[in-house]
Every structure is written in C-alpha cells, then in structure tokens.
Amino acid sequence: AQKITQTQPGMFVQEKEAVTLDCTYDTSDPSYGLFWYKQPSSGEMIFLIYQGSYDQQNATEGRYSLNFQKARKSANLVISASQLGDSAMYFCAMREGEGGSTLGRLYFGRGTQLTVWP
Amino acid sequence: EAGVTQSPTHLIKTRGQQVTLRCSPISGHTSVYWYQQALGLGLQFLLWYDEGEERNRGNFPPRFSGRQFPNYSSELNVNALELEDSALYLCASNVNRAYEQYFGPGTRLTVT
C-alpha cells in the first residue's frame, strides 16, 4: 500500500487566489511527521512546512498552512494568495516515528504540479 | 551557512559502466540520505547514513551502494548501470532534533 497518496497530478490557480493540494497518508505508527516540499524546475527540493502527529494545532509558515485531519489521515497544503513563483511540483512526505528520533527516511507521494496563472 | 552540495551536476554514462556521486552535508549534520527521482515519479528512498553507519536501505538492488566518511560526506556508487537508472539523484542531510531534511541540487544521471 502507498504510504503517501497525492491524487491531483496537476492543479491550476489564478494569482492571488488560495489553493489546496491534497495528501493522504497511511501508517500504523502513532508517532510520525508530515512534510511538504516544493520542487521548482531547477530540481532542488525546498522544505515548506512540517506537522507532527501529536501537534494539536495546524502548522503555518507564512502563506503556507497544513490542514491536518488526523482521523481522516489527511494533510492538505493550503497556499494563500498564490504568486507566479509558486508554480512548481509539490510533494507531500512522511517520516514514521523511530523511538522519538527525528531521523529516518521520508516516504514521498508522486507530487502535484501547480501552475499559477496571471 | 552553506547548503547541501552535490557533484557532479550532470553526467552521461553508458549501460554497464559504473558511477560515483558525491554529497557534502550541511556543516554539523551527521545524517545523509540518498533518493532517486526517475522521470514522472516521486522520490524513492535509496540509503540512509548516520555517524558513518548505514542505517536503512530502500528496495534497490545491491549494485547501489554507498558510504559515509568521517567528515560526514557521502558517496553513492552504482555499478553495472542500466537504462532505468537514468534519474535525478538527490542527497539530503539533517541532524537529530531537526525535523526537516535539507536537500541538495541533485545530480542528473543519464544512461545511454
């Protein structure tokens, strides 16, 4: 079974509008972390936001927020006030708990290509 | 603070050849991760090194191997290259208590 599922291969949003990128995850570990990364056409992965499984509040970082619904095992990324520079591939990822360590491999989804148009 | 660096940026190899990719983590980071990103696919985990030891390995054949040096830099070796090894190889690093992994720019390998 896929650990991370991103069902939207592509999304389009107009500049200054908000957009939600979907992510669902699958784990039986009670301790895990969820991440979103942005990959521009240059290829480098840029960390955007993190949510821990025990965090009570949804994570926010500037224009990025993570809509964490634990019971539904979803971790959607919301980008507010989209900018042309937000056009990129977005990946959802998960790390399963390893005795409380923050080390360990990430499981990635297949990504969503976001295009922001003027 | 310098980020994760990788070399070379690009390379082209012939099927059956061997290749070595290099990664230098951020100063102070002890863990290095290697991922493969084939065209149109997400990142597939290859190897994780921490404090010089291999901690975990993804579902790749033994011809994918690597090591971590005392200065925490790392090499990824791929023997007997196959066409499907063509991909972007990304290296990431972090240190315990840092949730995110920091990625390098990648090495784009083309096998012909």
Summarize this entry quickly.
Chain A is mainly β.
Structure report:
- The complex is a heterodimer of chains A (118) and B (112).
- Chain A is an all-beta fold and 118 residues long.
- Chain A has no helices and twelve strands.
- In chain A, the strands form three sheets. In chain A, strands 2, 5, 6, 10, 11 and 12 form a six-stranded mixed sheet that branches. Chain A has a four-stranded antiparallel sheet with strand order 3-9-8-7, with no helix packed on it.
- In chain A, a hairpin with a 4-residue loop joins β8 and β9 (74-79).
- With 112 residues, chain B is mainly β.
- In chain B, 0% of the residues lie in helices and 51% in strands.
- Chain B has strands spanning 5-7, 10-13, 19-24, 31-37, 44-50, 53-57, 64-68, 74-78, 87-94, 102-103, 107-111.
- In chain B, β9 (87-94) and β10 form a beta hairpin.
- The mean pLDDT of chain B is 94.
- Chain A binds chain B through residues 4, 33, 35, 37, 42-47, 50, 52, 91, 93, 101-111, and chain B through 31, 33, 35, 41-45, 48, 50, 55-56, 58, 88, 90, 92, 94, 96-106, 108.
